[in-house]
Amino acid sequence: MPGDMPGPVNQRIYRILREAIVKGTFPPGSPLSEKDISERLGVSRQPVREAFIKLGEAGLVQVLPQRGTFVMKISPRRVEDGRFIREAVEVAVAARAAQRVTQPQLHAIAGLLDGQRRAARANDTASFLDLDDAFHQAIAAAADCPAVWQTIENIKANMDRVRYLSLAEVSPLDRLIEQHDAIYSALRDGDAPAAQAAMAAHLRELTISFEPIRARNPDWFGAGDD
Hints:
Blueprint: H1 9-22, E1 31-32, H2 34-41, H3 45-57, E2 61-64, E3 68-71, H4 76-100, H5 103-121, H6 125-142, H7 147-155, H8 157-163, H9 167-170, H10 173-189, H11 192-203, H12 205-216
Antiparallel strand pairs: 1-3, 2-3
Helix pairs in contact: 1-3, 2-3, 4-6, 4-8, 4-10, 4-11, 5-6, 5-10, 10-11
């Protein structure tokens, strides 16, 4: 519920709805009603309307005059643009983190990696992906630029939707763990070039897995330029 989360009400509602869309609770074409959501969450319609605007800016919903607000299909263009921007930012972040990371931060990052191993053994993809976000956020914190993660979150909504579409079947979790382990090892060794290379390889995984995911879920994707 919004009252249990930090931040302004409209931002809290945005995060709730973003998560529901990303995880497929609201699939493409689902109608979203200001009235229904405001009643369900116990808030006025104004912050819901503001959350809808932000969801539209993220490419997650579309407002159709005289018809309503609907969840959009995944835009391949937005996925690729987000991946390109994220790679440009996070590769630089990884290099900086390798030069600045502290032992307590390394310990925390290693703990997240161990958590991913446990999630993979349990075939718990949802927890695995939550830990994936935490892993990348921890690296941004180690680079002493935590605000970067907010920027990344704003551009990766459609990327996240792809990740939740049978990602475990297309990109084996063990392979993603190996990639995270390579990033962690570079950070531990203070090797900035290796951290850059490992992060770039990891983020390009989505390019490899995108077409198989799209082929298995054609109704979830728009045209290439959407």
